[in-house]
Amino acid sequence: MEEKNISRRSFVKGMALGTVAGYFASAGLSSTVFKKALLPKEKLNQVDIGEMKSLKVKVVSETSWYDNNVWLNDVKKSGGLLVNQYEIPWTVEGVKSGYQGSNLGGFSTYIEATLMDDKVIKIHMDTGWNPAWMEKRFREEGVAEKLAKKEIDFMVQTHEHIDHFFGIEATTKFYPDIPIYVPKGFYQEGFDLLKGKSFPKGNVKNDYPHKGKVTVLDSRKVNVLYPGIALMTFDVPIILRVFGEQSFVFNVKDKGLVLVTGCCHQGVISYMEAVRQKVKGGEKIYAVQGGLHISPFEDWDPQYDDLILAFNKYGVQKIGANHCTGYITAEKMIKAGLPMVRGTARHMSKRDIYLGNGDELAIA
Amino acid sequence: MIPQGGDNMNGQFLDTLWLEERKRVNLMKQPVRGILSGVLAFAFFMCLWWIFMDPRGWLRWYTPQYGYMYIRWLLIVAIWQVYIFNFWPFKHEWMERSHPLKKGIILTLINFAVTGLLIWVFYYSIFGSLSIPYFSWPELKKTGLSDFFSREYSSLAILMMAAIASWLSPIWPVAFENYPWHGMKQPAKGMTVFMVTFLLTTYVYFICMHPHYRVLFYPWQEYTAAFPWWYKTFHTLSGNFNVGWIMCGTVAVWLSEMILERYPFRLIKTQPWRGIGGFAFILLLAAILFFLFVFMQDVVWGVSVEGAKRLMAPDWRYLHTGELAILLLGVAMILYFYFDNWPRKYSTEVNILIRVAITIVGAVILHWAYYKASPGLLGTQAGYSHPQQFPMAPVILFINVMLYHNWFMDGWPGKRIEQK
Prior knowledge:
- The structure holds two protein chains of two kinds.
- Chain A is α/β, with parallel strands linked by helices.
- Helix content of chain A is 27%, strand content 23%.
- In chain A, the strands form two sheets. Chain A has a seven-stranded mixed beta sheet with strand order 6-5-4-3-2-1-13.
- The longest helix of chain A has 18 residues, at 8-25.
- Chain A is globular.
- The termini of chain A are far apart.
- Chain B is built from 17 helices and two strands.
- Chain B has helices at 2-5, 18-21, 32-53, 65-84, 92-97, 100-130, 137-142, 147-168, 171-176, 188-208, 210-216, 231-234, 240-257, 273-301, 314-338, 348-378, 392-408; strands spanning 24-26, 415-417.
- By secondary structure, chain B is mostly helical.
């Protein structure tokens, strides 16, 4: 093939033409004119979830493990953050700062939601990890008694992670047929564990098989459970090969929406944006309570600063963070002027910088 | 590498590589040769992935940053071996006479060894130990950070250096044809180009990635690094913004070199103008890819939200532009290496247009196939946006394997060097 002989002038003209054409064909698409024409318009599809009178959210246990380094070494030795959680030999002995030598703790929250007719809905959210620790905390906070008397209306499993789910026998021991809501994305191992299967490699077992109804909720709609009480499911891939998480939305009369989370792997800003788009009154979020999954290992990433810098724009009045929010995050949030609710650092929670074990957030 | 692509440009460039001079004969016909070669490369990639990376496999280095770091450096070392040092210290006669398998094993082992030396000696023991601790896993650990995050943070820094190098190193041989050092002999020429491009890489690193590390540690390291200068315009403090456009730059270089046949900048007759034009073209193509991919994501998922996570996070969107670009490159390389850069029978412009169309369609298919198959095949997690998962890692490893196969092994058993 013969190469064309072109002058420098022609080349420059060609390049200029190509640049302009290329700009309009692609990069120019990001200009305001193209954006207005092509970007999807935001569709608010707000569901009216109703109203309720008041809300009490108690942190039963937010201490998922006691020594970050031990936990991270378990993960590192097994091959990192993408390894299946059921196959990691979690350290259950020899940890000085642990509970009875075990590094395992767990996450669980107890919720009382008073409806407009004064009926109180009692909710058991997540069941923790170490059954011995969780049973102790359930007894200390009166949850065990309520479970045994079947006073609790249902259990919500926010997601399948070790520290929220592997202690299932601490719940089923007291209330084997408790109705459970799980998010879409639960693996077969999760359902098997519920039914009593053990996973020796991951040091997890369930001697008290679950016998009640399990309802799988998906992300297609806002799931209204009672007036003023709804669950939203998010299709998020999460570390340790977990998929999907669900979080609560409560609508407290005269206050606004209260979001209660397990770990909030979907991201708290993403969560608030989803609530704004899908729940009536979503423009006014009064409070956020629970794990915000920002620096659970006291690690950091500039993206987390993006979150803290953006949080103030949402006008949230109370942030009852705990658990996987991380202490570094809490310090930064306080420094950024965010309305963090402080805790009391009891029952093995290490600091009072956010809500700890036994602390309660009441909205009335 | 242009001759394989179509027009025989031999002699027109100031400097040519052995890759451009080698004459190969086809041992099989198309499409059997292309399909078989691609399948072989993929099988070798799967072996490597299983041994080193797969979270269900043997060594499980894809933690993720640790394994990803090695993958990145294997690529840049291969580029140095072939494009900068032109296979030095091996003589070209030896390259021509030796069996492809023997050459492949030796050159790949060298590739692995140099990568290991760079990471364990240069970064961990010298650079990280004596200058900036975040380049060294052991040094970071000494500061009190956990073993796991010490390794992850240092791996990210080291792999970022490789990402920038994989963009800048090939620019000199591709756009400037090693001008003004084209007349020098190896290893002096290689060393000179290596030093110049590595210097540029270091500058770019400190401007584009070092500010990320100001914010990565707590408290912010305000005395040692500048505030991320891109924050106000691009709504994130994360260096992923730079990762995105730099990856688009890397892809732009290799698209230019392969399916675009260095067109149109090769029409400029003299250096350094051809190099400057080439560099400008590559930057322009990178910008087009970057903004186009950002825009496409905005259209599909809605405009990103500052502070959000996952799909809606601005920094992930930028990172994903690089991931989308690398899928394009993967397809372009398959077309170039295994299907003789088809078509070659039309005018240069038409050939290029058809290849670009094939590459775009192929990338769409690869995108769909990757997210569909990777959980079962690679042991990764389902879903698009995962904070600990990088589609660039497996795709770049596959690209590395294609480079080993075609650069080190002449594409054997589909092709072989013509024996005199």
